[in-house]
Amino acid sequence: MREQCESAEGKRPQMDAISRRLLELKAKALQALGHPARLLILEALREGECCVCDLKPILGLRQPNISQHLSILRAANLVASRREGTRVIYRVIDPTVFEIIDLMGEVVRRQGEEMAEAVSRSA
User: Fold this and answer.
1) 78: domain CATH number?
2) What pLDDT shows up at residue 41?
């Protein structure tokens, strides 16, 4: 018989359907953040609204590739779009996403410092 893990209170935490759905939505948003091009798009949108034509020189990608990345960000409810004539203008829905990006940058910076320390100690 396999033993089950218990929380500090002695109860095994149960996940209801709402909690599972929330985890799925979080995972979808984090997956959308998991590509350098999409992070670069969000960094450009940090400065304000953009259309694909504004993003092309920043990303160095073709329009269909940029549109695909924007579609993923839209599906994760991270960006919204509106039409302005023939152009589609994109914006970040909730600027809290930038806090997440900044926090991950801090994590990566700290990991880099720890790695540099470990290398210098072993040298």
Assistant:
1) 1.10.10.10
2) 98
- Tokens read off for 56: 């092309």
What would the pLDDT profile of 10-43 be if each residue is shown by its tens digit? 565 677 888 888 999 899 999 999 999 999 999 9
Number of domains forming the structure of the chain: 1
Structure tokens at 10: 């002695």
Residue ranges making up the domain that contains 104: 36-122
Rounded-to-10 torsion of CA 108, 110, 102, 47: -80
What is the rounded end-to-end Cα distance, in angstroms, of the chain?
48
Instruction: Tell me the pTM.
Output: 0.78
65 inside domain: yes
Q: With contact defined as beta carbons under 8 Å apart, do 100 and 33 qualify?
A: yes
Instruction: Please choose, from the candidates 68, 72, 69, the residue with its C-alpha nearest in 3D space to the C-alpha of residue 41.
Output: 69
Structure token digits, residue 54: 């504004």
Nearest to 41 by CA among 71, 4, 20: 71
Q: Residues 42-64: pLDDT tens digits? A: 999 999 999 999 999 999 999 99
